[in-house]
Design a protein that fits this description.
The protein is elongated. A hairpin with a 5-residue loop joins strand 2 and strand 3. The chain contains one helix and four strands; from the N terminus they run H-E-E-E-E. It has 104 residues and is of the alpha+beta class. The model has no long low-confidence stretch (mean pLDDT 79).
Amino acid sequence: MRKLISSIVLVGTALLMLLPVQPVQPVQRVRAQTNAVYYTVRYACIVSPDMRGSIEGQWVLDCNGKMTGWGWEPGHNCTYTEMTYQECGGGGGPDPGPFVPDGS
């Protein structure tokens, strides 16, 4: 009787190990980015002298998903962010080019 129970457990365990298992977390597929995003970070707090609207940082999220730039990041305290978009050349395309500050 013990051999029968042992063999049933052994066969059952082997069958369970062969069954495919669904992942706990769904696999996220990476979607190709269709636009390059230009971020201009501007100061928004009230101080003396009035500095509201002055540029504190400029960033680019390029077509390959790489973020480059200078200064304060988008979402930094006491700032607001202006975003502009540029269409990527088909299929993720090349970088939108170097970021040229507007000089304000």
